Amino acid sequence: MGEVSVQSQDGPPAATPSPIADDAAPETQRDDRSARLRSLRSPRRPRIYFEVLLIAVSYWVYSLVRNAVPEQKAAALSNADWLWSLEKFLGIAVEQSVNHAVNSVTWLIVSMNYYYATLHFVVTIGVLMWLFRRHPGRYAAARLVLFATTGVALLGYYLYPLAPPRLMNGGHFIDTVLVHHTWGSMASGNFKNMSNQYAAMPSMHIGWSLWCGLTIYALASAPWARIAGLLYPATTLIVIVSTANHFWLDAVGGMTCLAFGYAVSFAWYGSLPHHLQKRVTRPAGARLSALGPGAPIRVGQPAAEAQVRR
Q: Do the domain assignments include residue 265?
C-alpha cells in the first residue's frame, strides 16, 4: 500500500474573501447615492420661515446684482437704436403709437403707472403664498422655475445693456411717470439713481407675470380665476409698452428666460410643476421607519399605514 502524506498547517485557516461581498459593496454605495439624490429631488413640505427668508434674501441679491451691473449708457442706447430698427424691419415697431395714444387718456395711463410699479411684486408674492397653502407638493418646483428665470435674466442684463424706449435719443417716447408725476417706475423720477436704468432686456415684468398666469391657469379650478390668469400677462404686456418701459422684443426675452426656468425645473424634478402631486406624501418606508422599533401597530392595517397610539 502506498503511503499517504498529510500536511498540517499551524493556526486557523486564512479567511477567503467573498467575491459576492466585494461586488456588493460598490453596488450598495451606488444605491445609497441614488437614494440620496432621489430624496433631494423629491418635493418636500415647505416651511414658512425658511421660504420667507429665502425669498427676501433672493430678491435682495437680485436687486443688488441687477443694480451692480455697469450702466453702459453708450452701449445701451446703441442697442436700443438697433433693436428699434429691427422692429421696424419686422413691421412691429408700434410702441411709440401705443405710448402716445394711451398717454392721452390721463386716468388710464396713471392707472398703468401704478400697475407697473406695484402688481409686479404683489401678484407674484400672492401666487407664491397661494401655492404654499394650497399646493405644497408643487410649490418647490414652481419656485425653482421663478428663481431660474430670474437668475438667467441677470445674465442678460450684464451681457446686453439696453435703454428703455423712454430714454432713447430722438425716439420721441413719453416717460409717463415724469409727465403725470406719479409714483411709478424705480427707473424714473426720484428713484432713477437707485436702479439700473439700462436693464430693459429681458423684461421680468413679462417673465414673472407669465409665470403667475400659467401657474394660475394650470392649477386653479374656478373658470374666472383661470381667465384672470391668462389676462394678467396680456395686460402686463400692454402696460410695459404703453409706459415706454420696454420694447416688444424685451417681452420675448422675458418669455425665453421663463422657458429656461421651466427647463431647469423639469430637469431637476422630472416633471412640470402642475404635474406633480398636490400634497407632499411621505414614502411608505419613511413612515414605517418613523414609528421606530417596537412601536405598537394598529391591527387590521398594513404596516406602511401603521400609526403610533399616543
A: yes
